[in-house]
Design a protein that fits this description.
Elements lengths: L14 H9 L3 E6 L36 H16 L3 E6 L9 H11 L5 E8 L6 H11 L3 E9 L3 H6 L6 H11 L5 E8 L6 H12 L5 E6 L2 E2 L3 H7 L8 H12 L7 E4 L9 E3 L6 H15 L49 H4 L4
Parallel strand pairs: 1-2, 2-3, 3-4, 4-5, 5-6, 6-8
Antiparallel strand pairs: 7-9
This protein binds iron/sulfur cluster.
C-alpha cells in the first residue's frame, strides 16, 4: 500500500490529488450531454427508471443535448480555466447511460471528445449491465493513449434494495462488469448511495469490504436524496422515505472510508440538487461544506481513509501523511462542472485550510 496517497489535511485520497499526481497539473472534469437515453426508462431493462433518478438534478444546463459536443466542451473548459485555473480536462459523459447506443455513435462521440489538445481523457457514466464487448474493446483501445474511466452505477450491493429501487440489475452484473473491465488500462469508478429505505448501516459498511477487494480506482458516494419528479419524492410525501440525518450520514461515511484502501480515490461525498427541485433532506450544505464535515470528523477521530485495514489500525500513520504540498481547492470541491465552488463560510473550516483557497 503506497504511503503518500492520503493528504494530511483531507485525511483521504481525493480524486483531485489523484489526478494531480498522475497528470502533474490541475485537472477538471467537464460534463457533456451526449444525447443518450437509459434502458431502465425505455423498456429494454425496465420502465420508470430508478426511484431516485431525475437527470436534471446532476446535469448543468449548459450540457443540453442539442448543443454540439464541441461547443459544450469549449464552454466547459473555458469555465474551469477561468474559475479554477485548471490546465487539463477530462470530458465526462454523465447524463443517462453513456454506453447505450451503437458502436458507431460511441466511437464518434468519444473520439470527438478527445480532439481538444487539453483533453487528457474521458469518463463514461453507465450501468453495469450496459457494456457490450465491442464497447469495452473501444474503451481499451482509447485507454492505450488516453485516460479512460468507466463510472459504474452500483448504488447498493444488496439485491433486495436494488430490486426495491427499480434498478433493473443486481450485484452480479456489477461484479461481471468490473471483471470484464479490469486489466485493460481502464480506470473503474463505482457509484454508491447510502440511505435507501430498509438499508442498514452495517449493510452499507459491508459494501466497503467488497469494494476493498475489487480493482476499483475511485468511488463516488452520496446520501439518498429526493428530488421533484421522482418516485422517491412521492414516497417522501407519503412518509415512506425518511431521509438520513446529516450527522448519521457523516458518521457512517467516515466508518466507510476507514475501510477503503488508500489507493482508491474519492471523487464525491455528497449529492446536491438545484434548489428548485430539491425535496429532502434539506441540509442546506454546499459541496465543500460536506467534504469538511467528513474531513473534520476524521480529524476528530484521528483516523483516515483505510485506517481500519490490516496494518493501518489505530490512527493515521506517519507514512500516510507525507503529502504536504500546498493543495488547490480542487481537492475539496467536486471537480465536475457545475459543482459551484463556494468560498468557505462555515466555522468548521480551519484557517490552515482557508489559506489554500484562491
Ligand atoms: S439512475 Fe441511471 S440507470 Fe437509473 S434510471 Fe437514471 S439514468 Fe437510468
Amino acid at each position: 500500500m503506497s504511503g503518500n496517497l492520503i493528504h494530511n489535511d483531507l485525511r483521504i485520497n481525493s480524486y483531485g490529488s489523484y489526478l494531480r499526481r498522475r497528470f502533474h497539473c490541475r485537472v477538471s472534469k467537464v460534463n457533456v450531454d451526449g444525447g443518450f437515453t437509459c434502458p431502465n426508462r425505455d423498456g429494454v431493462k425496465g420502465t420508470g427508471g430508478c426511484i431516485f433518478c431525475n437527470n436534471n438534478s446532476f446535469s448543468p444546463e449548459s450540457t443540453q443535448q442539442n448543443i454540439p459536443i464541441e461547443t459544450q466542451i469549449a464552454e466547459g473548459i473555458a469555465y474551469h480555466r477561468l474559475r479554477f485555473g485548471s490546465v487539463k480536462f477530462v470530458i465526462y459523459f454523465q447524463k443517462h447511460t453513456n454506453t447505450y447506443s451503437s458502436l458507431d455513435k460511441l466511437q464518434s462521440l468519444y473520439r470527438r471528445a478527445l480532439v481538444n489538445p487539453d483533453t487528457i481523457g474521458i469518463s463514461i457514466g453507465t450501468r453495469p449491465d450496459c457494456l457490450a464487448d465491442d464497447t469495452i474493446d473501444l474503451l481499451e483501445e482509447l485507454a492505450r493513449t488516453r485516460y479512460v474511466c468507466v463510472e459504474l452505477g452500483l448504488q447498493s450491493m444488496d439485491d433486495a434494495i436494488l430490486s426495491r429501487i427499480n434498478r433493473g440489475h443486481g450485484l452480479s452484473e456489477y461484479l461481471s462488469a468490473v471483471e470484464r473491465l479490469a486489466g485493460k488500462g481502464i480506470d473503474i469508478c463505482t457509484h454508491l448511495i447510502y440511505g435507501f429505505p430498509g438499508e442498514t448501516r452495517e449493510g452499507f459498511l459491508e459494501t466497503a469490504d467488497l469494494i476493498a477487494k475489487l480493482p476499483v480506482n475511485s468511488l463516488k458516494i452520496h446520501q439518498l436524496h429526493a428530488v421533484k419528479g421522482t418516485t422517491l419524492a412521492g414516497m417522501y410525501a407519503r412518509g415512506e422515505f425518511l431521509p438520513l440525518a446529516h450527522a448519521e450520514y457523516v458518521t457512517t461515511v467516515c466508518d466507510f472510508l476507514e475501510r477503503i484502501p488508500p489507493d482508491i480515490a474519492i471523487q464525491r461525498l455528497y449529492g446536491s440538487a438545484p434548489l428548485a427541485i430539491r425535496v429532502a433532506p434539506a441540509w442546506g450544505l454546499k459541496n465543500n461544506q460536506m467534504w469538511y464535515s467528513v474531513i473534520n470528523e476524521l480529524k476528530r477521530r484521528k483516523s483516515c481513509q483505510g485506517c481500519r485495514l490490516p496494518g493501518i489500525t489505530g490512527s493515521i500513520r506517519p507514512d500516510l501523511t507525507i503529502n504536504r504540498s500546498p493543495h488547490p481547492p480542487s481537492d475539496l470541491q467536486s471537480i465536475e462542472s457545475g459543482s459551484g465552488y463556494v468560498p468557505p463560510q462555515i466555522s468548521c473550516i480551519k484557517k490552515s485550510t482557508e489559506r489554500n483557497w484562491p
